[in-house]
Design goal:
Blueprint (H helix, E strand, L loop, with lengths): L5 E5 L9 H10 L4 H6 L9 E5 L2 E5 L8 H5 L5 E4 L2 E4 L9 H5 L6 E3 L15 E3 L5 H7 L5 H5 L5 E5 H24 L4
Antiparallel strand pairs: 1-8, 2-3, 4-5, 6-7
């Protein structure tokens, strides 16, 4: 059985910079309430970051690279490529920040406020944090979407199955080619 791979697809034109995706991410991964997150400005714990680039605002997150530089450089194999995603095995992370330095998207951070898997309290040591596609949160809550995609009311973030998305994009490109060919074939008056 083939494991389906998913991706977060961002439409920068739809992003309003409200940062509800960041708040939802922190809420899904911690025991903090939305009110506590906003009051304590705890969005630094988010695995998705809204960046302002010139006049645009763009949510940035892990791209779950197939040949992931973060996993290749990790000296303790704390970051591993599994079917569908790059996972952080926090119990193996020593907080060296090599993954942070090589991520081409700036999507990995190191923080100490993250509970180690299996623990109930935050750890005092710093460990790698990156998008995990809300795998535990989705399983626990019976959700199909990631917390950030669910929170985005503007449709800027979509959680899609990769093969379906690729087929949709190929069809859109083919339609674009047909329309261009039809326009070029029109006689000029």
């Amino acid at each position: 059985m083939e494991i389906k791979e998913y991706a977060l697809v961002v439409d920068a034109e739809k992003c309003k910079g409200c940062k509800k995706c960041e708040i939802a991410c922190v809420e899904a991964h911690t025991n903090l309430t939305r009110k506590e997150i906003i009051k304590n400005k705890a969005t630094n714990l988010s695995r998705i970051k809204v960046c302002k680039i010139e006049k645009a605002k763009v949510p940035v997150q892990c791209h779950q690279c197939h040949n992931a530089p973060c996993a290749r450089v990790c000296p303790t194999a704390a970051l591993v490529r599994e079917p569908g995603m790059v996972r952080v095995r926090q119990q193996l992370c020593v907080g060296c920040k090599m993954c942070v330095m090589v991520c081409p998207f700036g999507a990995v951070s190191v923080d100490h406020n993250e509970p180690i898997i299996g623990d109930t309290a935050p750890t005092s040591r710093k460990v790698a944090i990156k998008c995990d596609q809300c795998s535990e949160w989705r399983a626990k809550n019976g959700e199909e979407l990631t917390a950030c995609a669910k929170a985005c009311k503007f449709g800027a973030i979509k959680f899609v199955e990769i093969h379906e998305y690729q087929a949709q994009k190929a069809e859109e490109a083919a339609r674009g080619c047909l329309e261009t060919s039809a326009e070029e074939a029109q006689p000029l008056n």
